[in-house]
Amino acid sequence: MVATSKDAEPAGSARDGTFTMPAPMRPPPKAFCVLLPVWGEAFIDAFLENSLPTLLAAGNVPALARTLPTRFVFLTRQRDELTIRGHPAYARLRQVCDVGFLPIDDLIMSGNHSTTITLGWERAVRREGEAMLDTCFVFLVSDYVMADGSLATIARHMMAGISGIQAGNFQLNEEVADYWLNERLAAAGEVLSLKPREMVRWGLDCLHPATIANIVNYPLC
């Protein structure tokens, strides 16, 4: 997922390319809550080692925590909580914001991960009760890698009164993409800051066949 300031801009651009922020539609939120459904050792390890370092970049989860009280909630199986807590990346995340866990054992179904993820998000939101109306929820999945500054952009617009932001993403061929990402993770260490244009350039060279098949003007035939 690459959410740059351009991706997240609400409607309001003029013909000359300038942008005027519309009048606030609602009061700013009082808290941020990042929701991350993940279960199973392989998927947990992939998130903690590949995706979380990009979320820990200064312009992502730390930017939310600098703006408002922020919680990061793992939606997972009860037995997977120990696995997550035992990973060094979990300790780094706790230094940035509050971290919590919400069991979703009863929601997990084989072969239908999308439904499990959606129901897990719903459970987490409803658990907030009336506070949900003053909370900005960030809905993530575990195999996103995120450009530095993505969540800072979202925070800026939400604090200005925007009610919601949708950011697009596209699927990559993991076998092709892994070398580039692993090389940067090895060089960066605990926190990985990736520039949006660099990520898009990389991603366009590693598109998954399912993504390519949805490009209407792709010159295959």
Give a concise summary.
The chain has 221 residues and is of the alpha/beta class. The protein has 10 helices and 4 strands.
Order of SSEs, N→C? HEHHEHHEHEHHHH
Residue ranges: pLDDT <50 for 5 or more in a row?
1-11
What does the main sheet amount to? 4 strands, parallel
Strand content: 5-15%
Rg computed from alpha carbons, rounded to a whole number of angstroms? 18 Å
Mean pLDDT: 88
Distance between the termini: 29 Å
Strand order within the widest sheet?
3-2-1-4
Number of helices: 10
Basic shape: globular
Structural notes for this entry:
The protein has helices at residues 5-8, 41-55, 61-67, 80-85, 88-96, 113-127, 150-159, 174-188, 196-204, 209-212, and strands at residues 31-37, 70-76, 98-103, 135-139. The protein has 221 residues and is an alpha/beta fold. It has a four-stranded parallel sheet with strand order 3-2-1-4, with helices on both faces.
